[in-house]
Amino acid sequence: MQNPVLPMPCEILKVHRESGHEWTFRVATDAKPQHGQFMQLSIPKVGEAPISVSAQGEGWLEFTIRSVGRVTDCIFSKQAGDVLFLRGPYGKGWPLEQLQGKHLVVVAGGTGVAPVRSLLRHLEENPSFVRDVHLICGFKNEEGIVFREELERWKESFSAVYTLDSGTKEGWRTGLVTEFVGEIPFDTFGDQYAVIVVGPPPMMKFTGLELLKCGAAPEKIWMSFERKMSCAVGKCGHCRIDEVYVCLDGPVFPYTVARRLVD
């Protein structure tokens, strides 16, 4: 039986700069996570960090990482041909069986686009999986935009609204993502819809409240959390919120649970 917490050495195949603070690393691995699951990335004698899978293909996974501490700073020093250690995948991903055949609404903020990117790529390649996709992506400013080429491409496949919290950009709106939730035509969906929200906790909290104001049912909303996940197998308790272990019970939660977890 394979040890579920044993890291495996994996070669970095490609490194791509997304923004001033985010880089995407493509790593060789045979792991096949569900969309929305995460892996633990580690460097011996430095530490490890939980990172969502932002894309996947045959024999590789991609991780989009923001430099926020010692481990990620060390990862940023790596180049193609170097080695990262991976273990996982862990947690629960997006509920594909409850998304299939529905009108899908995706609201993502900042690097929160990363945990839903692999799902969006899947929907782009398999357009009949859902009825349609209504995508709202928001970033703090133009310097913080990630996945620029895909954002442009998704305009062709999805009904997309892109916005900056501040500043202007041609073809983009200005304002928080919550300001554009009211443009989603929930009244035309009947009960055949599902909603995904991912981003910083305050953004998810207020987006959830705005969705309820616009008539979205709590049981049709899902959110993805990142919270101090360490062991990833429910033993250390670092990610525990009351009786919930984010690493085991999440990181994807139905809003009926998630609304009690937002700090």
Account of the protein in words:
This protein has two domains: 8-90, Translation factors (Elongation Factor Tu (Ef-tu), domain 3, Beta Barrel); 96-258, 3-Layer(aba) Sandwich (Rossmann fold), CATH 3.40.50. 21% of the residues lie in helices and 34% in strands. The chain has 263 residues and is of the alpha/beta class. Strand 1 (8-17) and strand 2 form a beta hairpin. It starts with 7 loop residues before the first strand and ends in a 5-residue tail after the last helix. The strands form three sheets. It has a seven-stranded mixed sheet with strand order 10-9-8-7-11-12-15, with helices on both faces. A six-stranded antiparallel barrel has the order 1-2-5-4-3-6. The protein has a two-stranded antiparallel ribbon with strand order 13-14. It comes from Neglectibacter timonensis. InterPro entries: Cyt_c3_hydrogenase_gsu, Dihydroorotate_DH_Fe-S-bd, FAD-bd_FR_type, Flavoprot_Pyr_Nucl_cyt_Rdtase, FNR_nucleotide-bd, OxRdtase_FAD/NAD-bd, PyrK_electron_transfer, Riboflavin_synthase-like_b-brl.
Q: What would the average pLDDT be, to the nearest integer?
A: 91
Physical arrangement of strands within the biggest beta sheet? 10-9-8-7-11-12-15
Count of the separate structural domains: 2
CATH architecture of the largest domain: 3-Layer(aba) Sandwich
Gross geometry: globular
Protein name: Anaerobic sulfite reductase subunit AsrB
Organism: Neglectibacter timonensis
InterPro entries: Cyt_c3_hydrogenase_gsu, Dihydroorotate_DH_Fe-S-bd, FAD-bd_FR_type, Flavoprot_Pyr_Nucl_cyt_Rdtase, FNR_nucleotide-bd, OxRdtase_FAD/NAD-bd, PyrK_electron_transfer, Riboflavin_synthase-like_b-brl
Domain FAD-binding FR-type: 5-96
